[in-house]
Amino acid sequence: MKRTLTLLAAILLCTACAPTANTGGGPEKQPISTSPAVVTVSPSLSAGGKSQAPGGTAPATLGIVWDDASKKAALDTATQAMALYARPSVPDKVWIQELGQLLTSQAVADYQYVDPANIPVTKITGPGQLTIDPSNGFGCHVVFTTDAGNYDVQLLRGTADKAWQVNRFTPPNGSK
Length: 176
What we know:
Layout: H1 2-17, H2 68-85, H3 92-99, H4 105-111, E1 129-133, E2 136-146, E3 149-156, E4 165-170
Antiparallel strand pairs: 1-2, 2-3, 3-4
């Protein structure tokens, strides 16, 4: 797009400066156009020729609904992940190998160098409390009470048929 506009501007400049055919009059007799050049550009289209973000709104949940099975799967994944996370006595390589099975690729990269000995939580003391946004079937949070305070576990999924994965463990304020 920039290249097209740049090329068009260069052509207009060159043709404005180029000598014109002698039609029998000097420069004072040549017609001068005072109207600016108008360039029309068609809108950017996505695959299938449809406009991007019609109406300027984010897409709906794309068929991902919060049914009981989705809620149970999210809660089960978060509970399993929190139990694997809260093991400060496990060697770091074993800790990330086992926990990594339930993490997003970004979370694996973020947690691969964590020394579990530095994690203050050793025990989950209550059931997880699921928090959802009914209009967003791609993510949720589960908060656990632990011996070190409340931990928030963020889960994500790409589609309705994909497994939930942990993206982040957020410790209570003031702890690691």
